[in-house]
Amino acid sequence: xxxxxxxxxxxxxxxxxxxxxxxxxxxxxxxxxxxxxxxxxxxxxxxxxxxxxxxxxxxxxxxxxxxxxxxxxxxxxxxxxxxxxxxxxxxxxxxxxxxxxxxxxxxxxxxxxxxxxxxxxxxxxxxxxxxxxxxxxxxxxxxxxxxxxxxxxxxxxxxxxxxxxxxxxxxxxxxxxxxxxxxxxxxxxxxxxxxxxxxxxxxxxxxxxxxxxxxxxxxxxxxxxxxxxxxxxxxxxxxxxxxxxxxxxxxxxxxxxxxxxxxxxxxxxxxxxxxxxxxxxxxxxxxxxxxxxxxxxxxxxxxxxxxxxxxxxxxxxxxxxxxxxxxxxxxxxxxxxxxxxxxxxxxxxxxxxxxxxxxxxxxxxxxxxxxxxxxxxxxxxxxxxxxxxxxxxxxxxxxxxxxxxxxxxxxxxxxxxxxxxxxxxxxxxxxxxxxxxxxxxxxxxxxxxxxxxxxxxxxxxxxxxxxxxxxxxxxxxxxxxxxxxxxxxxxxxxxxxxxxxxxxxxxxxxxxxxxxxxxxxxx
Length: 523
Hints:
The chain is an alpha/beta fold.
């Protein structure tokens, strides 16, 4: 099923229902379908067609969602980009994707390279929240001049790519995950009921659209005919206000967001009783946080969804019944343990835990989590070697280590490739290490992830410096200028040398044993 059908189905069944609420403006499904038609026609007039990439760098917005459906109508490929990327990171992604056009927020214009490799001329940039200027096109002007009625009927098949979503690479170079129409359709058709005139729900979209969880949540809301309240970015008090104002029924949160809500001094000022489904995932959930959330949201059903970009989101789930802490002491103890798991595999996905030779391991033994099914990625865009390394004999090697228990629940044990998962964002240690090593006073550096109650994991650097004059604050500021905020180290430890094996490889296990203590909060 082509994903453009999700909107067409909903707009046909519930045309007058509010589809999107953003910045106080409400748009019905019929009106949103017209906006998408206009945008698709405007892009077609600019020459956009099948296979062209359309990149988007902006916080969540109605325009960003319209860009996805317009791309799908034209058989083009949607490329969401992390709006927190620095200029060099953006250049890498533009070099790989080679988009025909870049939809971009006005505040990010200065980051776009206009010369050299990965550059994009102003006439290939579409300003989403501002007027046309300097050769750039304006989103509003494009829509005002386009036809509202002409509908493009896509020809892309289930196995054709509809999204390239960037994720961190082991070498510090981002990888473009190719997701097909079936990557989304097979999952949503199995888990979401289509729009129903008799049933109304309101979703609060909090997770960014450059994240697989955000994109899946958006598509699920559209196909389900749900009203979607769009947040630009997560902010605790605004989230609480929007739930109360719009009587939101569903929300998806990463553990960091949930903790910030619970810790907010104004939490109990708001009526949150309308929430009946809270999905969480994208990072490890501290047990104390989910226990508190269960107490604070007694009417809500909690779902832990585990997956990654390469698996097109969820592959295992801890369902609502496992969050009900009732029963005998033995039953409650068992449920508390299960709260630290990622649940069991979904019906449409095969999951195994394998050893280094790819053979399944017995219950209780740690191995790498692998998955296969019709909605897995097609590969990495223009990166055949990386594709072969991750996609083997139809199985996605997730890079996550874990083990089964006797009841088929999976528990995570660590990161096979040393990636750091901070607040739902993936951080490549090698990328941070490269930046650290570029400082003239740094002789050697290694980066590890350490446990953190708020962010799941934090970034710690172990550095060999050339002079005692180099301090932690100076080095953190150096990284701040070159890396997205979530990637920079939150603590730096100085040491005389790094432990290495005979092949010269840093022994990070030793570093974790010595320096793996949590980051101390700073005043």
